[in-house]
Each structure stands twice: as structure tokens, then as C-alpha cells.
Amino acid sequence: MTSSADSSSWPLWEVFIRSSRGLSHVHAGSLHAPDATMAIRNARDLYTRRNEGTSVWVVPAAAIMASDPDSKGAYFESAQGKSYRHATYYTQSEGVKHL
Amino acid sequence: MSPENHQHAPLHLADEGDAATALAEAEAGQHRFDELIAEDSRIEPRDWMPESYRKSLVRQVSQHAHSEIIGMQPEGNWISRAPSLKRKAILMAKVQDEAGHGLYLYSAAETLGRPREEMYDQLYSGKAKYSSIFNYPARTWADIGAIGWLVDGAAIVNQVPLCRASYGPYGRAMVRICKEESFHQRQGWEILYSLSHGTEAQHQMAQDAVDRFYGPALQMFGPPDGDSPNSQQSMEWKIKRFTNDELRQRFVDMLVPQVEALGLTLPDPELKWNEERGHYDFGDLDWDEFFAVIKGNGPLSRQRLEHYRKARDEGAWVREAAVAYANHQAQGRDRDQAALIGA
Q1: Cross-referenced NCBIfam families, in alphabetical order (chain A) (predicted)?
Q2: Distance set, CA B144 to CA B5, B75, B94, B330 (Å)
Q3: What is the pTM assigned to this prediction?
Q4: B181-209, pLDDT tens digit by residue?
Q5: Which residue of B has its CA nearest to A68?
């Protein structure tokens, strides 16, 4: 067994697929590949065997910054308790058309 | 590491204060975990989770991945002998799907912090388990039909509830797999249908294949509930949604009308509709054989492993070449960059 060339020592890539024109790319999964070109090619074979995509993005997994799941409450707090940001908060206009 | 592949940050315990903080964090984590499970929500890779939950999932998901990879062998064996170009193209597509399923699942297991290489090594060394069904030989072309109909059929019954498994990446991998799996079952059924309606010898070949794969396929759901020690915990964690016996019963109930449509029979004299239960009764399975196969004494256990090792060893140069090519390309880009800056 050669460990240095084992596929697992290849970097990890996250794969994003645009399923059809007009939609955004959505995370499909991940794979290992030695470089971006091969990652794109492998992503096509792995995630679009049945016309699932019109476009593929691959991103080095190491390049993604993520919010800390443990700070969930505090981090997203400012969006909570502000129901006035939603149309449903305003009820006086009920029954009035096109409003 | 990506957001999907981030383990819960390791806790560095510098002093007593940190230990207390760690304990409080674990308590809060457990509380949140219990809440999410209770409300039937999903656990995601970077969430706190009990070590036992992580371990149990790594075991299940990696075994599932290994099964897909080893599962390519019985069918791959028939690609060069498929009876027509159409059947050959179909079989190649199916085997390619199995490889894909293995990769989706390895990815999911990796999000739990288990390195890919370690999983490959465990399969290579023979330490890892995989579904014992793949240690049976595919003797005739009809076996390819029986594998698609019965083995993939049982896999679907098992996998559909797993789409709702509490661990997000596992559930998402299963959704993708289930979408692809239904073609596998139908193509198998059609192979058997063609044979069953062909010559007498072809009909007999189809019946033989069903006779051989029926029992082992029913055993794919695992041992009877009484002998399945991990099931209870797995159901409490909402990884598993139904017991082994419940799924087995569901499968048998589905098979009876399907085998009638094939013009074949199932090899169980005790198989009988039970009006009271609203289900088919069926005979006992050979569990001694099942446990023997699990322990590595299946008809082809040794060959399956040898073939996997051979494929991995012989493919090493391809992986090396890919790395060499990638490095070469990167150096070329650096040179171009340097030339551009120099100019």
C-alpha cells in the first residue's frame, strides 16, 4: 500500500450543483481529488449521472469558513424578536385587496 | 476542514476551571442533542453529540459504504458476459451507481471525523464488516436478475426509512441513493421476467436464482429483533425507524405479488397469508448460516477481500500519477505567474 498517493491524502472538495438554469448552486456533497480540474471531473461523474446539473462548482473544503454552531443562539439573536420585519406583523389591512 | 467535516472542537483542559467549563458544555450539548432528537429534527456535523452516537453512526455508515463497494463485485463479474449490449450498458450503469453510493456514504462518515483513509484501510485489512449478502456468488445471468430484484429490493426497504435518519449527512446521502436504487430493482425484475417467459431452461434458471437469493436477501435486515442488541439504542436515537423484523415482514408482503407477476415461486412452503395479522406468515431462516457468513465463512468471503486488495494495489499507480500530474500543473502555473511578474 502506498500511503502518500492514497486518495485520502488528496484534499477534500465540497461540490455544489446548479440543477437547472435560474436556480442557485446547491451543496451536493464532497469528494477527494488532487486538484480542481480532477475534482470537477469527478464531481460530474459522482453527482450528475442523471442530468442533475447544468453547472458544477468545487470549493476546497479548507477554504470554507463556518459560523460556530455552539454560539447559535447569540449569533443569530438580532434577527429574532423582530417580527416587524415580516409582512404578517401588520394586520390592520386585513381584507383590503392587493395590500 | 469544511463546515461539513468539522468535528466538534477538541476541548483542551488547561486547569480545573476549564474542566468545569467542559462539563457544563457537555451538559448543555447533551440537553440540546436530546431536544433535537425529541422534536425529530436533525443533528448536523458540527453539533455536539454523545460519543456513543458518533461511534455507532461511524460504524453503521462506514459498513454501509463498504457494502456498496464490495457489492460491485458479484455484478461486475457479469459485465463482460451480459447477454446483449443493452443489458451490458444497464449493468455498467448499475455498478457505477454502487461505486457512487459508496462514495456518498464515505463522505457522510467522514463528516463524523473518521478519515477516509482509515476506512479504506479497515476494509483492506479485513477488519471492517460489510453486508454478508455479497459473499454469495452470482453463478448465472439469472442471479443478476435476482440480485437486482431481491438484494436491491431489500436494500430499498431498509434504506427508505434511513432517509429520515437523525444524522443529517447520512439522511441526505440516503435520499440520493434511494432515488437511484429503484432503477436497480426494476431492471433486476425485468431480467427475471424475460427469463421466466423464455425457454423452459431459462425459466428454470430464473427459479433457481430466486431460490438461492430469497433467504439471504431476507437476512439482509439483520438478525431477529431478540438477537439485535444495537437496534433499541439506534431507534431511540432515530437513526433506525423500524425493527429488523418489521422491515423483513414489509419486504415479504411486497414480494408475494411481485413473484406471482414473474410467474415464479418463493422457496418457502410455510409462506401463507394470515388474515388475522394482515400479513404473510413465513418460515424460519437459516440463522446459523447467516452468523457463519458474518464471521467470514461465506462462500466467497476470502475472494471478495482478495479482489478488493488487488484492485486497490493495482490502482495505486493511477493515484500516484494523478498527484504527479496535479503537482506538475501547479508548477507550470507558478512558472507562468513568475514570468508574468518578471515581464
Answers
A1: PA_CoA_Oxy2
A2: 37, 6, 11, 45
A3: 0.89
A4: 889 999 999 999 999 999 999 999 999 99
A5: B46
